[in-house]
Amino acid sequence: MSESDEAPVYTLAEGKPVEDPTSSVVLRGPKVRGGGLAFLADTQLIETLAHFPRERIPERVVHAKAAGAWGYFECTHDITDWCSAAPFRRIGKQTQVLARLSTVAGFALKMKTEEGNWDFVGNDLPVFFIRDPAKFPSLNSSHKRHPQTAVADASMFWDFHNNNQEGAHCLMQRFGPRGVPQSLKNVNGFGNHTFKFGKPEDGSYKYVKIHFKPDDGIKSLSQEDAVLLAGEEPDYHVKDMYNSIERGDYPTWTMYLQVMDPKEAETYKWNIFDITKIWPHKDYPLIPVGKLVLNKNPDNHFHDIEQAAFSPSTLIPGIAPSADLMLHARMFSYPDAARYRVGPNYQQLPCNRPLDAYSPYQRDGPMRLDGNYGSDPDYVRSSFRKVKSGPADVAHSEWVGRVQAYSSDVEEEDWEQPRNLWKIFKDNEEDEVFLNNLSGHVNKALPEVQEATVRMWANVDEEISKRLEEKLKKLTGDFDHSKAPPSQTVPASRRK
Fold first, then answer.
1. CA–CA dist 278, 136 (Å, integer)
2. Would you state the pLDDT for residue 1?
3. Second label for 315, Cα 20 to 30 Å away, from 36, 96, 163, 365?
């Protein structure tokens, strides 16, 4: 046996060798069989017990459970005429990637380039439920657990969407035939938002939508199979991806872009910054850019995946945000959540650390890992330690306006894309699958909520409303709760 193969000596966290990791120092009387009194001086026992309840860090509020892997992105097509971002500078260039694919269809990538990390934080659905960022906590709450009973509640879910109907397009995607992927190898990665790709050196840019399409194709589970797996093998998706990589069946995706000239955005029929809408491929076709390959499982899930932090604000020269309000809100919220969940120095952990960084104006804080920049000055424009300037950002847009409170209204144009999707469902004979999935969930809501939901779908197409109503009549009401949540009495001082 080589020296490196010898069993290591077990120690405490500070390095003290221990004879028996299962023992405790106790006072035992001669007449007490198996009993005794523990000592606070028993460092091993105290350390072991104290560490155990601190093993968990706060879970992600939305995408709590996920699979993850390492891999690479390879540029396969030349876009250097209009974008100089590091991953796309030459055909054949490979960039290290950390991926996290959540079980609620989140699709997050961290590309480690020579000019910093670029985080792509997308979803399996091409659109989202809302476009006003202040609604996001309420959206999340309505999709989660009832505050009194702590179980999922369809009445809350549909009551929210009945009163925030801009989400109809996303709901059709969610309850359509592609709602539950067969495996994580079959998940789409949609960027959802509009981004700017450009050349900081001359200030030019294009608007883009980002797509990662699975090379294994789009494959979905039926509602029945999904329910069966949820009960028999709730870790099915995570296990499947791990085993695929272990046997060399690497998941791969092709990256595509939809590209729009900024001048076209001013006259396009829809608001290109509205996350509830797509850019139809017939208007802006998919342009292939590169290949994503996941080929290495993490050595330790907590170390590489649970502590990983992704944010749409993590950008590199050549990639910039657009005027999308939801994107701007996420650019604040995601790193803020990481500071709470992992700690203020989360960027120094190996999974999050860029290939190269020099940021001496962010110092100290809990769990500092990088030497804290030694004696380098911790203030800007020091005469004692000069720093070089990096490239400028992609050009900013010019804005003239006034500051005001704003929340979007649902208008007639918000029903156009859902109507188009309904026609696609019918042309592909997928309308019955959609209605079966939809009615099965709406049936769990209270009768008054069901009625409002039926009325909402009439805005897309009267046929959806009528067929949904017919299906609900045939189903026995399987309500998540027998009555609406009780209302709290409003104090007299709060009444108007």
1. 20
2. 44
3. 365
The two structure tokens encoding residue 257: 């872009």
Helices (DSSP H) in 259-344: which residue ranges? 262-265, 301, 325-341
Domain span at residue 21? 3-54
What are the catalytic residues?
A: 63, 123
Whole-number Å distance between alpha carbons of 434 and 421: 11
| Residue 351 phi, psi (nearest 5) | -70, -30
269 in the same domain as 203:
yes
The Cα 100–Cα 119 span in angstroms is: 11
Q: Which long-range contacts (CB under 8 A, 24 or more apart) does 386-390 make?
A: 387/358, 390/115, 390/317
DSSP state of 492: G
Lowest model confidence (mean pLDDT) among 254-258, 294-298, 394-398: 394-398
One domain, residues 326 and 454: no
Query: What's 14's domain CATH number?
Result: 4.10.91.20
Q: Which two tokens stand for residue 42?
A: 């028993």
Quick one: pLDDT band at residue 108, thresholds 50, 70, 90?
A: very high
Same domain? For 42 and 153 the reply is: no
Same domain assignment for residues 224 and 262: yes
Say if residue 334 carries a ligand binding annotation.
Answer: yes
